[in-house]
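Hi V.,

You were right to ask for the full record rather than a summary. Here it is.
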Amino acid sequence: MAKKTLLAAFDFDHTIIDDNSDLIAQVELARTIEAIPEVTGMSFLLQRLYDLNWEIIIISDSNSYFIKRWLESRGLAGIVAKVYTNPGEFTEDGRLKIRKYHVQNWCKLSTRNLCKGHVLETHLATARKAGSALRRVAYVGDGRNDLCPALKLTRDDFVLPRVGYPLNQLLEDHQRRPRATIVPWTSPEQILRVLEGISQT
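Predicted structure:
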């Protein structure tokens, strides 16, 4: 297979799934995680991007146990190249313990435990150092903590904020407009049309 030249980075809560795993993960029940609905059409979108040779990553303030379990339940774990999130594991007494991804003090747009912009930049730098051919990025998100990575994108990139969620309004109001092309979305079909177009350029 040819080297991947396109990167699709996704948030998880309210972007891939239609809920907030920060709340639900505390229930510690696999069936609860597996029952959370996707944003309708998101599984098809991810599979289609994989078939088009996009590299797919997730950058989320959720936790690794939740995301891994949910992706496995949908048969999607094998198409996501990397998940950047807070590590989650069960203790001996059966409790889910979640640790911070990192502790940062350099980004006022992000939470202390996860600067998504830093994660995205590090991923790209590491990939390129290893000989990756990645040349364009599409970032798909919804929340306040997705603003930092959106502002890190270049003129060749795309940021896709979900309509009706904070990121879309923040991109309109922020004093520093992103260099990337902004394409708001309400359904994965809209995302797919944009990213299929990028694949052909």
